[in-house]
Amino acid sequence: MGTVRKTITLTDTQDGWIKAQIDAGHYTNDSEYIRDLIRREQERSAGIEAVRAALIEGEASGEPRLFDAGAFKQRMLGPRG
User: Fold this and answer.
1) Predicted confidence pLDDT, tens digits, the chain (81 residues)
2) How many secondary structure helices (H) and strands (E) does the chain include?
3) Whole-prediction pTM value?
């Protein structure tokens, strides 16, 4: 995996926050912290896309049907219920 050097601009408050995370031992340097933020955002975005896809699938599945909670519970309990 290749790497690319980037230059970013932060506020003093943001820089202080990153330094505090490093000082607390959560990260070894600024780059590690930024990469972790990006990974977490990628995971969050993937989760949001999965929910969107499920919503689209649900909307495309047709008209809603009435839900019988009692029948559902019986099916889940199986023959012992």
Assistant:
1) 899 999 999 999 999 999 999 999 999 999 999 999 999 999 999 999 999 999 999 999 999 889 999 999 999 998 775
2) 3, 0
3) 0.68
Angle between helix axes 12-23 and 30-60 (nearest 10 degrees) is 100
- What is the three-class DSSP state of 8? coil
Contact between residue 37 and residue 45 where contact means Cβ atoms under 8 Å apart:
no
Q: What is the DSSP letter of 69?
A: H
**Contacts (Cβ under 8 Å, ≥6 apart) of 10:** 18
Identify the CA nearest to 73 among candidates 62, 81, 65.
81
CA atoms of 61 and 56, how far apart (whole Å): 9
